[in-house]
Specification:
Shape: globular
Strand content: 5-15%
Helix content: 40-55%
Low-confidence stretches: 65-72
Structural class: mainly alpha
Radius of gyration: 17 Å
Order of helices and strands: HHEHHEEH
């Protein structure tokens, strides 16, 4: 049900930069923020700083990569790799796209789906804002979805 609401809201927001948004990416972003609030002792209200931490560099220590390589090569070639970088992920922060998505949605007229701004944020929702999920059950459901996804 929540994904249908997010899909509908993204469809209504489909203008300019937001037209290319994928509902799955928005749901991943919302799940990550929700579970970060849950881990923070069930925090109901959260700040722009909390969002940056949940979706930023610090999240790498807490959450798995949302886009792991689904087909790792089980038989690596014995020849040296032409890429000297041992990290196959060119993006050092797999959540960076989620952070950019939050900023784009927060600065849109409709705002972030399922999230209510309590104090209007600056700089695309990433500075001085205070938010909460529109209903606590949304935050709880998204947290549960995240944990099921990680356990699978």
């Amino acid at each position: 049900m929540l994904s249908k609401v997010v899909t509908r809201r993204l469809g209504a927001a489909a203008s300019g930069e937001l037209s290319a948004l994928q509902p799955a990416a928005a749901m991943d972003m919302l799940r990550t923020v929700a579970v970060a609030n849950y881990v923070a002792k069930g925090r109901r209200e959260f700040t722009s700083e909390d969002v940056r931490i949940a979706l930023g560099e610090e999240s790498l220590q807490l959450w798995p990569n949302p886009n792991p390589n689904p087909n790792p090569n089980p038989n690596p070639s014995p020849s040296p790799s032409p890429n000297p970088n041992p990290n196959p992920n060119p993006n050092p922060n797999p959540h960076q796209e989620s952070l950019q998505l939050w900023a784009a949605l927060a600065s849109s007229l409709e705002g972030v789906p399922l999230v209510k701004p309590i104090v209007e944020a600056k700089e695309g929702g990433l500075v001085d804002g205070l938010f909460q999920f529109k209903h606590l059950s949304f935050q709880e459901a998204l947290s549960g979805q995240f944990l099921v996804q990680v356990a699978a």
